[in-house]
UniProtKB/TrEMBL annotation:
Signal peptide: none annotated. InterPro entries: Aminotransferase_I/II_large, DapC_beta/gammaproteobac, LL-DAP_aminotransferase, PyrdxlP-dep_Trfase, PyrdxlP-dep_Trfase_major, PyrdxlP-dep_Trfase_small. Residues 32-392 form the Aminotransferase class I/classII large domain. It comes from Diaphorobacter nitroreducens. Keywords: Aminotransferase, Transferase. Its cofactor is pyridoxal 5'-phosphate. GO terms for biological process: lysine biosynthetic process via diaminopimelate. The lineage of its organism: Bacteria, Pseudomonadati, Pseudomonadota, Betaproteobacteria, Burkholderiales. The keyword Transferase applies. This is Succinyldiaminopimelate aminotransferase.
């Protein structure tokens, strides 16, 4: 067996299952889960119809590079969304969802034969970054975050000797779990570091289309263009239809950026067997070419967060995120509970599931930055999320 497998830590949802093993959920309330970030709004009918209408494609092997019509649809969306040009033939590559691509990209980029191979990631973070790093034969470095700045990463605190060993940097904007969006000066800092030390930046942007401000979130390639880096050197952006179009089961997204990196990634994927099925490609073309359903989806989230956030803010330190569909809430100190104890007691008393924040982070500098926080995924319908929030308020008030 691959010895690197022993380095992997249990996934957060497996840890949650273990945490709840001895807990009996309240029978007085129906179960409501805010634990898993799985979109639960209805998939638009036109996407389903495009999928069904192209099932004849199952009779043929697909190309790993994807059909030109799909790459052109992806490039067209980038032009409309970010007002930037990408070459569909050399700077775009379809992938089977951003999760699969993030993992595979690390296997492409990391050279484990170089002493001290390091991959830097935010903390808290999406655990795929860590697993991809370990199985690529590198060591993860968890960059410290600042709770006072909505857990923005403190890049200045990363030592020079770490940057010298760094081959890949994972960033997530809008962030999971905080929903924070990286501003242009932060991108400028990271590009300067990349130029100085030669590492590649993987920008995870799967939450980019669920936002609450008037201005849509800044994308990595968009930031590069604004800063005069139109070749997107050492930068790849990852995006997905799962959240944007409510099709998590479609497993469809794309990467875009540095043509040299795309070429190497395509070579890896050709051997990895990562081609997207023709019917999925056709449904993806339909989804990327339509914005009406995205606007309607965003409106549902805005309505939901507008109702739920003020309810929880009465009893918790929580605020409307820049983007995404998570609330990153602090467990009140007056409860005298850890985030894991809070999740256990809430399930037992009110049958609501939340994810302990410490499960989404690693100890750094003697502390876990996710400790005393919980992540709530507001993915269900508004009424169900509001009911969950009401129960959480009752739970906290009953104990303070």
């Amino acid at each position: 067996m691959n010895p690197l497998l022993s380095l992997l830590q249990p996934y957060p949802f497996e840890r949650l299952r273990q945490l709840f093993a001895g807990v009996t959920p309240s029978a007085a309330h129906r179960a409501i889960s805010l634990g898993i970030g799985e979109p639960r709004h209805a998939t638009p009918p036109f996407i389903q119809e495009a999928l069904a209408a192209n099932l004849a494609g199952l009779a043929s092997y697909p190309s790993t590079a994807g059909d030109p019509s799909l790459r052109e649809a992806c490039a067209g969306w980038m032009q409309r969304r970010y007002r930037i040009p990408v070459n569909p033939a050399t700077q775009v590559l379809p992938v089977n969802g951003s999760r699969e691509a993030l993992f595979a990209f690390a296997q492409t980029v990391v050279d484990p034969t170089r002493a001290g191979a390091t991959v830097v990631c935010p903390n808290p973070f999406y655990q795929i970054y860590e697993g991809a790093t370990l199985l690529a034969g590198a060591t993860p470095y968890y960059a410290p975050s600042d709770p006072a700045r909505n857990f923005a990463v403190d890049w200045d605190s990363v030592p020079d000797e770490v940057w010298q060993r760094t081959q890949l940097l994972f960033v997530c904007s809008p962030g999971n779990p905080t929903g924070a969006v990286m501003p242009l000066p932060e991108w400028e800092k990271l590009f300067a570091l990349s130029d100085r030390y030669g590492f590649v930046i993987a920008s995870d942007e799967c939450y980019s289309e669920i936002y609450f401000r008037d201005e849509p979130p800044l994308g990595g390639l968009e930031a590069a263009t604004q800063l005069g880096r139109a070749d997107y050197r050492n930068l790849i952006a990852f995006t997905s239809l799962s959240k944007r179009s409510n099709v998590p089961g479609l497993r469809s997204g794309f990467v875009a950026g540095d043509a040299a990196l795309i070429k190497a990634f395509l070579l890896y994927r050709t051997y990895h067997g990562s081609a997207m099925g023709p019917a999925v490609q056709a449904a993806s073309v339909a989804a990327w070419n339509d914005e009406v359903h995205v606007e309607e989806n965003r409106a549902l989230y805005r309505q939901k967060f507008a109702q739920v956030t003020p309810m929880l803010a009465e009893v918790m330190d929580v605020r409307l995120p820049d983007a995404g569909f998570y609330l990153w809430a602090k467990v009140p100190d007056a409860l005298g509970m850890s985030d894991a104890e809070f999740a256990q007691a809430l399930l037992a008393q009110y049958n609501v599931t939340v994810l302990p924040g410490s499960y989404l982070a690693r100890d750094s500098g003697g502390a876990n930055p996710g400790a005393q926080r919980v992540r709530m995924a507001l993915v269900a319908e508004t009424a169900e999320c509001a009911e969950a929030a009401s129960r959480i308020v009752q739970f906290i008030q009953s104990r303070t």
